[in-house]
Amino acid sequence: MGRSAKYKTADDLLDNTVVRNDCLVWPDSACLMPSLGPASPMAKTFGTTSVIRILFTIVRYPPGGRRLVRFCSSPFCINPFHFAEAKKYRNQRKELLDPHGLLPSQESTRHLAAPPDDYLAALFPRKPEHVRFLAETAARAGLDGKGLRPADKKLPQVTTINAVYADPEKPLFKMRGRPPKSRTSDTPISGLPNDAINSLEMDDEENSGDTGNTGHAEGVQTLDANLRELTDALGPTTPHVDRSPHPLDFGRNPETNKPLTLRQILARK
User: Which secondary structure element, helix H or strand E, spans residue 20, and what is its range?
Assistant: First the structure.
């Protein structure tokens, strides 16, 4: 005689869970999600081993898609009101008179989507504690889990902007004034006599008054004349070239004007 089935109704599935913050947590196992054995009678009846999909079909309605979206933060939660269909099927249900009925795409494949309605009604939870808990969590979760915040999304941070008014007694910024430009330099000019430098400064002071454009033009002409006199007095300046012979230069060949070779130097000595 074979072993009797462990899970026959929704009450059997709910008895195997632990309540944590409105979540019905399935015991941890090696599976990635709460699952039944492939040989389980309930898995064969529903055509799936997923405990979440089986309980969702019994308590709510047969899902239209293959995927269910979880809105809580417990990875092994099987509360059917913490899950919802994909957005595509949710939008289709909004246009139906009975949002908990079958979708138009499910009418031709009703026998494949889930067992008959009378069979699902027989599997519905009967224990008062289970019915009360599901009703309370459904009210807190809202329609399709809208009352639950998704675990992978954070609430947007609200930035408060305070108005800042300028104080008339405190200026916002100050303009730094530029230093006045001087026409003459305080550093002595190298290579010029002191008398010439003094004469230039005296001419510049005489022409620095507010005499209009005429005084400025006369000052420029006087300065040019003084510069020409200094240039004539000093004469043309040529760079100094060192004409001393190199210590290793032993002379050149007068015929070719090339440096002497070692043999020519030794023969000359």
Answer: strand 18-20
Structure tokens at 55: 């309980």
pTM of model > 0.70: no
- In this structure, what is the dihedral angle of CA atoms 7, 10, 16, 19, given to the nearest 10 degrees? 170
Read off the tokens for 121. Answer: 């009604």
Q: Reduce the DSSP state of residue 27 to 3 states and report it.
A: coil
The amino acid occupying position 229 is: E
Predicted confidence band of residue 1 (pLDDT cuts 50, 70, 90): very low
Distance CA 59, CA 14 (A): 12
Return phi, psi of residue 102, to 5°: -90, 145
CB 144 within 8 A of CB 90: yes
- Identify the burial level of 133 via C-beta atoms within 10 angstroms of its C-beta, where 0-12 means exposed, 13-18 middle and 19 or more buried: middle
> 52-66 in b/e burial notation, b at 16+ Cβ within 10 A?
bbbbbbbbbbbbbee
Q: Amino acid identity of 127?
A: K
**Rounded Cα–Cα distance for residues 177 and 191 (Å):** 36
Candidates 4, 8, 6; CA nearest to 122 is 8
Q: Report pLDDT for 145.
A: 78
139 is written with which tokens?
């009210």
d(CA 112, CA 103): 13
Between the CA atoms of 213, 219, 222 and 228, what dihedral angle is there, to the nearest 10 degrees? -100
